[in-house]
């Protein structure tokens, strides 16, 4: 998910009452909820290199053990530094080392959980396994999740200022978010079941993979993607309507002749293909400008498609 969501999750956990367990609780929760995204520096490499590096090592089990410990040490050192210089706020609670470490782990573990909810993918077992995992439940930026998180944190803080029960709004928000995520998971599961059946009926094919891709804002709808060992297609689903499968079924891999037109080992080493869940290949252009375009079914929208595509020159060799 986006970093605003991660930050708000950390803040909501604090407003549920955990921020009163120790000094520096809130900053620890919020920083911990974001810290696995230190791998974002990979985007500076340009191209598709970041696809092979993001949501991997810093989101895996070793990182989940080490990163909270590092943050815990930094926060303890910060509190000690302020105390020695007489700059420690008087109203700050004493730092409880045990609770501070526990909150660092809670915040950090919330990050891969929420990253798993979308269809971009996360390597939860890196470095022991490079397998990608997908929740296909929420769009990567979910405004309804934002609304529930912001409302829960804001109302809780307002009630705290007025000496009222400030934990309850955060707990209500947390409960609503859990129900929202569960409902979206059920929508995804139902959409995939109906799409698999529709593909069998319309194309006489048994899809090996069906993905209900969440879409922005309209959380009750899904962009449906399917494929078998040779063909792929798409459609749509609405929880208030039904599933629709497009009439076309296209070959997602190249024929033998096209495969001979480029170095297969170069393609296999592409960061995009390492990340790709539903790779598709298409010959574009003609003559010397003929190019093999490799992309992913999940991200073919013209607004973002170029970021998730790689091109290999072919020329006339494939003739």
Textual characterization of the structure:
The protein is of the alpha+beta class. The chain folds into three domains: about 5-135, no CATH class; about 195-250, no CATH class; about 255-315, no CATH class. Helix content is about 45%, strand content about 15%. The chain has helices at about 5-15, 25-35, 50-55, 60-85, 95-115, 145-160, 165-205, 255-260, 265-270, 270-275, and strands at about 210-215, 220-225, 230-240, 245, 250, 280-285, 290-295, 310-315. The strands form two sheets. Strands 1, 2, 3, 4 and 5 form a five-stranded antiparallel beta sheet that branches. It has a three-stranded antiparallel beta sheet with strand order 6-7-8, with no helix packed on it. The chain starts with a helix and ends in a 6-residue tail after the last strand.
The helix-strand sequence is HHHHHHHEEEEEHHHEEE
Poorly predicted runs of 5 or more residues: none
The whole-number mean of residue pLDDT values reads 89
Largest beta-sheet characterization: 5 strands, antiparallel
- Sheet/helix structural class: alpha+beta
Helical stretch tally: 10
Shape: globular
Taking the alpha carbons of the first and last residues, their distance comes to 45 Å
Radius of gyration: 24 Å
Count of the domains: 3
Helix percent reads 40-55%
Strand content: 5-15%
Number-wise, the strands total: 8
